[in-house]
Amino acid sequence: MFNRLLTSAFLGLTVLTGSALADDADWVGLYKGLDALDGSIDYLSIAIKEPGEFDIRVVPSVFSLCENGKGWIVAEGRLTDEGKLHRFNSRAVCEGGELFDIRDRFLVRDEQTGIVRFGATDDDRPLIYHRISTQ
What does the UniProt keyword field contain (predicted)? Predict the structure, then answer.
């Protein structure tokens, strides 16, 4: 009897943990996007830091925030109650060492297609990212 209770408790914990990780795993991966305005290609990387929290990196082919056009974004992420990914503690890193804070964003993932969208610029025009890898 005790073994059955222990097994049931373990299976219940596994199911609960699995569903929580599955939500996180839906976001994890490498994404590729095209900025329709300037033609730059962005790579977006989302990795689990701990359950519900992420490391986010964006590397564009042309980075308009840097004088020489070369740089990337480093940020943290956290899932919201609405299912969005809040990108915060965002910093632009320019090649050569310049570092500055940038505006927080909210990423939205389409559950059917897996496409990630967010207003990337100050004019809030959306960037669209397609997942190209889940690892």
Answer: Signal
**Closest among 66, 24, 21 to 47, alpha carbons compared:** 24
For the chain, percent of residues with pLDDT exceeding 70: 79
**E strand spans, 35-97:** 41-50, 53-60, 71-79, 85-94
Tell me which residue has tokens 């669209």: 128
* Averaged pLDDT for residues 5-29: 51
Which residue's structure tokens are 């519900």? Answer: 52
Among 13-17, 81-85, 113-117, whose mean pLDDT is lowest? Answer: 13-17
SS3 state at 60: strand
How many Å apart are CA 121 and CA 119, to the nearest integer?
A: 6
For residue 47, give Cα distances in angstroms to 1, 6, 17, 33, 103. 41, 33, 18, 17, 20
Mean pLDDT of 119-127: 66
